[in-house]
Design goal:
Number of helices: 12
Helix content: 10-25%
Radius of gyration: 23 Å
Shape: globular
Number of strands: 31
């Protein structure tokens, strides 16, 4: 794995995750109470033995840069997680025009590395994958490019890039989001072939691209230097099929592309279930993140059910928390009711003088005030939410335009970062 360099794409705008991406890049969005999306591909690389990692960034990247700088490696193993931010150079004077263009503009950084293979990953997916297995598939098949695929049902195929294969598993065709019966028939894979390769098909007859590519370094450089292609999924990959040997690596674990507010909300709350599909506490596959030096969470007469509570929080007497995620440094008052919600926590603790200033100005302090009710919501970081506030979408509004508090998307209330909500405010 020392011959592999990983490029993690983290420069997209993440417009479908707005307002969570209003002040941060998509890979910097907090998940699971104490992590960020970018921690998942970084952790997969570290657990797989890959020590050379570059993160390509562009939009709203300040918090993402700060977070990545917290990853420190042993000086003796040569590992690193380095940022490659969009910049003007003598060769390129524009923003990244797409995923492939982002890699093209940074070819010089990894060409000098002692790496035979380049692994290209997305910065906004949830999954556990051992990339050593993918490398073995790549080398054994003699491929120029290997792409990781997951079997999906017909109902899912129309929203993904689907591949068709020959008997040896070589990719012979690719279709982005097939809709018609004829298109679906063209890219269908037999369940017998899938099961011969050690995966229970369970009626799944379509192989979807996970957007995880393993290139021979020379192949990647050749493709990017000889073509003007700007996107891997839409241009580079389909064209490479015609001229190079492209193989698939089958994967059958949990994989979720965090593309929408609903997907983000559902994936987070699923982590709090008794048997979560995505486990953060696997001892053999740890999830790494920014080290924090926080005290244990303190609870006083609270009732907590099917929830994750992160470090450094305070939960008041009589509070009830059900099926929710509570982030770091959350201060939750007495009698608060939180159900089916995600609280991202706070980046700091308020000092006594800061608390006195809030009270003097008639402004709620940082956290959740006494007797407030929160249901079906995402509360972003550093919010001041007063007492006896009601945040719930009882009218089942699907979407609403952005307001001072945030907005509703996919039926989920999103309270934006640093929002201030006064005592007695109600949204229902």
């Amino acid at each position: 794995m020392k011959n592999v360099v990983a490029l993690i794409l983290g420069g997209g705008r993440g417009t479908r995750l707005y307002p969570l991406t209003k002040f941060r890049a998509k890979p910097a969005v907090p998940i699971g109470g104490k992590y960020r999306l970018i921690d998942i591909p970084l952790s997969n690389c570290i657990n797989s033995g890959i020590g050379q990692m570059y993160v390509l960034t562009q939009f709203n990247s300040a918090s993402l840069h700060h977070h990545i700088h917290s990853f420190h490696f042993d000086n003796f193993n040569g590992g690193f997680a380095e940022i490659l931010a969009a910049q003007q150079t003598n060769k390129a004077g524009t923003w990244y025009q797409g995923t492939a263009d982002a890699v093209r503009q940074n070819l010089s950084f990894f060409q000098g590395r002692n790496a035979e293979y380049v692994l290209i990953l997305s910065g906004d997916q949830l999954y556990h994958m051992d990339f050593q297995r993918m490398l073995r598939t790549h080398i054994k098949s003699g491929a120029d490019v290997t792409i990781s695929t997951v079997p999906v049902e017909r109902s899912q195929a129309s929203g993904l890039g689907i591949m068709c294969l020959d008997a040896a598993g070589r990719v012979s065709g690719f279709l982005e989001k097939p809709k018609t019966d004829a298109e679906l028939q063209h890219v269908q894979t037999s369940t017998e072939w899938i099961e011969r390769h050690g995966i229970a098909a369970r009626g799944r007859q379509f192989l979807a691209s996970m957007g995880i590519y393993l290139f021979n370094r020379k192949t990647l450089v050749e493709v990017l230097e000889k073509t003007p292609y700007t996107d891997f999924g839409k241009e580079v990959f389909p064209a490479t099929i015609r001229t190079k040997k492209v193989q698939v690596h089958l994967f059958d674990g949990y994989w979720e592309d965090i593309g929408t507010i609903r997907a983000f909300y559902d994936a987070n709350l699923a982590m709090a279930k008794e048997n979560p599909p995505f486990v953060l506490s696997r001892p053999e596959w740890r999830t790494f993140t920014e080290p924090r030096f926080l005290p244990p969470t303190r609870m006083d007469g609270a009732a907590v059910h099917s929830s994750l509570i992160a470090d450094g929080s305070e939960i008041g007497e009589g509070a009830v928390i059900e099926n929710s995620i509570i982030g770091v440094r959350c201060k939750i008052g007495k009698g608060v009711k939180i159900r089916n919600s995600i609280l991202m926590g706070c980046d700091y603790y308020q000092t006594k003088s800061e608390i006195d200033e809030c009270l003097h100005n008639g402004m709620p302090v940082l956290g959740i005030g006494n007797n407030t009710v929160i249901e079906g919501a995402i509360i972003d970081k550093d919010c001041h939410i007063g007492e006896q506030v009601k945040i719930a979408n009882h009218n089942h509004v699907a979407d609403c335009q952005e307001k001072p508090f945030g907005m509703i998307r996919d039926g989920i209330i999103c309270i934006q970062k640093k929002a201030v909500i006064p005592d007695g405010w109600s949204l229902s």
